[in-house]
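Hi both,

Apologies for the delay on this - the queue was longer than expected. I finally got the ribose-5-phosphate-bound model through. Below you'll find the protein sequence and the ligand SMILES exactly as submitted, and right after that the structure tokens for the full complex including the ligand.
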Amino acid sequence: MSTSITTAATSSPTNLIEQSKRLAAFQSVTSHLLPFPNYTRIGIGSGSTVVYVVEAISTLLPATTLSTMAFYPTGAQSEELIEAAGFNLQYINKLPPGALLDVCFDGADEVDPALNLIKGGGACLWQEKIVATSSRKFVCVADFRKISPALGTQWTKGIPIEVLPLAANRVLGELERMGSINPKIRPGLPGKAGAIVTDNGMWIVDAPFKPLKVEGTSDREKGEWQVDELADALIKIPGVAEIGLFYGKNGKELREAEGGAQKPVEAYFGMEDGSVKVLSA
Ligand SMILES: O=C[C@H](O)[C@H](O)[C@H](O)COP(=O)(O)O
């Protein structure tokens, strides 16, 4: 299902893409936090778009509501973001067994019509997946560039895969055998030697594949995969810690009370014309 909303959020960033991210962030917070002031545990993802989610929460929520909330980061960047906003910072490892966050907001690098996601373009994906699946609702916030007919169409750098450093070359070999086109270990800072190191001490391998089908027939001999098939195969490669494909059942299928969904219940996209497009599970 898709709806389009025109928001009244003010647009201070001058850049169209930044404005779009901010519009989507304000709309997602309006739809998922304002009607539910009883929410107390909020997950905050990583990347440039969640910066506006934190701004929206700061701007839109009354101080009395904010004072009852705890915010759970997905890595070093979102931890700093939560602290800088003056929010109550908590950690997912302290969440009691069986407890869930009420909602988690996070960005994405690419979103297909079934709300499968590619994430990890900024090297955060493992903690993001833990926080998303520890939430009753995962809400994705993005700009118009992320809307895609099939994963791998818009985000062509490859599926980010978090790997144990000593297994990286072996993982590259497996990926080539599976039809990945020139998978690579992601380098660190420009001009510096060495691979990028994640918040978890791992490396990232970027594995491009032909655009991933949501359904229908696939031909693995030709390197053609369905999202779920490929994800299930990638996660089984020894040395792979986690993959940047968020896939499987959505929150509505899994029931909000139980959490566990990697896919969002809704994705908000700031559009070029100032509207916000919403894709629902
Ligand atoms: O590793 C980074 C995360 O998965 C981000 O959520 C994703 O890359 C989207 O980031 P941005 O909002 O900056 O486009």
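Main takeaway for now: The longest helix spans residues 16-32.

I'll put the files on the shared drive as well.

H.
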